Amino acid sequence: MAETADTYQLLEPDPPADLLPAIGDWPWLLGALLLVLGLVAAAIFIQLRKRILPDPNAHRAAAKARALAALDACDLPAARETAIRASLIIRSYLADACAEPALFETHEEFNARHDALAPLSDDAKLAAAQFFAKLAAMKYDRDSPAADPRGIIAESRTLLDTLHRGFI
């Protein structure tokens, strides 16, 4: 059995691209379509989110208007009751305007908390602390003849304006 040397020839392999099935352009079109749909969905989400987020300034202005209306309606003859009502009104404003838990705290708890009135400037914090200290003294003392309920309301309105302008 004599074999010839030319039976074992090396042949060039077929190109790999010829072995793959033909899929066309539809995966690229599908990818582009998904990309466009994702971008449209993101744009819609951003627009809806802008509408959903409330304006903090409008919310604070509404809280201030409610507090001013409550102060206007506060017509108590005694300074002690006026101080109690004014403290409640200002603390309610703080609870509405900056999610401050001062409404649910005693005067001592409020003073002990280091992060009290965090979104306010230092001047507004100082004015609030001084006024709440004055109101606490009036609330827990007997009525003094020198205390004027209208003066308490006027000071409360001034503090309310200071707090409203004091947001950082």
Number of helices: 7
Strand content: under 5%
Main β-sheet: number of strands, strand sense, barrel status? none
Indicate the overall shape. Answer: rod-shaped
The residue fraction in helices comes out at: 55-70%
Distance between the termini: 101 Å
- Helix-strand string: HHHHHHH
The overall pLDDT average reads 85
Quantity of strands, as a count: 0
Topology:
Blueprint: H1 16-19, H2 26-52, H3 56-73, H4 79-98, H5 107-112, H6 122-140, H7 149-165
Helix pairs in contact: 3-4, 3-7, 4-6, 4-7, 6-7
What does this structure look like?
It contains seven helices and no strands. It is mainly α. The model has no long low-confidence stretch (mean pLDDT 85).
Summed up, what is this model?
The chain is mainly alpha-helical and 168 residues long.
Which key features would you list for this structure?
168 residues, mainly alpha
